[in-house]
Each structure stands twice: as C-alpha cells, then as structure tokens.
Fold these 3 entries.
Entry 1:
Amino acid sequence: MTMGQQELSSGQEGSVASHETSQPQRIKFKRLDKTAKHIMNILDNEAVDKVQTEREIPDIRPGYIVELKVEVPENKRRTSIIKGIVIARRNAGLNTTFRLRRLAAGVGVESVFPLYSPNIKEMKVVDKKKVRRAKLYYLRDRMNPLKK
C-alpha cells in the first residue's frame, strides 16, 4: 500500500466510527415478551413499595381475624367497619387480594378485597387462629368459625 491509500482507508474508518457514535447503540433482545414481563415486574414492585410507604399494611394470612375500615363509594362516602376471618389470599403483586368471611344477619358473607386498595382506610389484626391450610374454604360448611 502506498501512503495515499493508507490515508484514504484511515479516513474512511474515521467517518464510519464517527457515524456509529452519533446513533445510540441498539439493545438486542432475544425474547421481547420476557423483557416486557421484567419491566412490568419492576413497575409493580415500585407501586407496592409506594403504597407501603404511604400507609401501614399488616401481614394478613389465612386464619387471621381482621377488622377493616372500608370507605364505601355510594352517593356519599361513608366508612363501614367489617370484621371477619381471612379464608384465602392470592398473591399477585399490586393486585394481591384476600377473601374475608363474616356473618351478616346470621348469613355467611364472603368479600374479596384488594390488599393495596385506597378504599381500605385501616386494617387491624384482632386475633390469629392456628391453621394448617392455605385456603380455608371448609369454613363455609361450619356455622361460626369466629367463635372459639
């Protein structure tokens, strides 16, 4: 190679290098669906942390007797106190729910509440029953599981 050819080749390399640095480097994803799930998990965890810093959320497990102050959206906002036993819990990040069973006018009533709902103003664990199951659906057949 002569001196002129070396200058041309080095000049071409310099222009290519400057062209590459002006554009941001592309990230290659093998599977886009896994990346989207990862991003959603990060956002979900951040939302859960934000809610937990705003208010205290106790550890609620099946077998716990819980008292809730729930804001009921009707014409006017009013709070009602609900006391019952937790018979199930479904862990799903920000969409975590628990199923509460209580007696209302002698009839068993089950309600599903989102754990991080803004309508739940206060949660208090009244008592803890010892259970060996994750889902206490068998309490539906019992008359009153809240009594000792």
Entry 2:
Amino acid sequence: MATLSVSYPEREVSSWPQQVKDAEAIQADETATTPLLDALASARGIDRVDLAARVLTKADAYAQASGAIIGARQRIEDLLEAAQDADAVGAIPALRELLAGAPA
C-alpha cells in the first residue's frame, strides 16, 4: 500500500481519514462545519464542495486499488495455507516467479 501513497507526505496521508469525514459531511450538508477541508480549499483557492468531490473520488480509487492489493495478498496466503508440501507451494503462480530467483 505504501506504493499508493509514496508521493504524499506522511502528514498528509495521516489526514486522509479526516478529509474523507469532512468530504462526506459536505456531501450530506454543504453548510457543514469542516475545518480541515475548509483550510485546504482556502489554501488551494478552490471551492470546498469541489474539493470534497475530489477527496471522495480519490478515496474511492484508493479503496479499489488497496482492495485489489489486499485481496491478492490474501489469495496467496490462502493458497499457502492450503499447500500440503513444497511442490504445492512452488505451484502457486504468483510465487513461482519469486522462487525462481531465490537462492537455493
């Protein structure tokens, strides 16, 4: 998941849950009090409602991408747990390439 957020400062990443909360509040009521999103919109010189829409769009995209990554990892974990022996582990498609380059 770090790859998805690598271009953002950690302080900004840590604000994402609050940004989403503020964006959802604005979506529900455009007059909602949202100090973080208001400050961000003001500093950027953009409308807070537009920023809220952008935040929610990016949050959805992040959720989809992270869901795909987490799902793939969990799939590999399931296959590893089900593997009965080293041959079964080696037959896992995603691991085959990794194991091919591993030292013996």
Entry 3:
Amino acid sequence: MGFPLEKSEDEWKKELGPEKYRIMRQKGTEHPGAGRFTHQFPKQGVFVCAACKELLYKASTKFESHCGWPAFFDNLPGKVKRIEDNSYGMHRVEAVCANCGGHLGHIFKGEGYSNPTDERHCINSASLEFHNEATNDN
C-alpha cells in the first residue's frame, strides 16, 4: 500500500526507536493507561504523527472515553486513513497516518459517546506528538 512518504523499514527503525517502531510499523499497542496523552486535555493545539509530523487531530476533538488510550471524535480532513482490520478474530477499523502509513490505533463507531460523530479514535500516545502552538488548521 503506497503512501506519500515512504521509507525502508531500516530507516523507520533507526528514526523511531524500538517502542515507536513496534507500535507504528508493527501495529503494536501500549498498555491501557500507560500513554502520556491519555489524561491530557489541552484546549488548543494539534496532535501530529510521531513518525512524519503530519497534522492529525485538533486538541478540541480529544475527549475522555475511559478506555485507557487517548480518544478523539474526529481527525483533520484527509489526514487519517481507515483500513479494515480483521485480526485477532475481531472486526475493527485501523487508523493509520495518511502520509506515512504509521499505525495510530483503531476507530470505533456507534458506542454511544455524546460527541458530534459518535466515533472514538482510540490512538496510541506513542504514535502522537503534541504541538501547543496554533496553526492554520486548528
């Protein structure tokens, strides 16, 4: 599957380090509650892809879901690609960075959260960086 930013796995391994590589390139996950962004709720700013720095989520779309991972109800337009994921005997939708293909987490719909999309983007903190400064996209 092609993405605008492509690198060899050796390049990704070197740039990301072991934990981010495991999560972002090997589709791993963090332990629930272990991520640095799980309990942070900034009012402004953006969350970007930890691998390629692509803007992904406005801080204003982050919400408390009590699931153990950072949760967002929507991504910036065109920034997160949805891929059907039937691994581990489950039907889920994987969220990946539309620029580099890095694994972010999964997207769940119809869980009854009172947000504008009724979606929960359950995202690994290791897949994100936070930028507090305002941008044209937030």
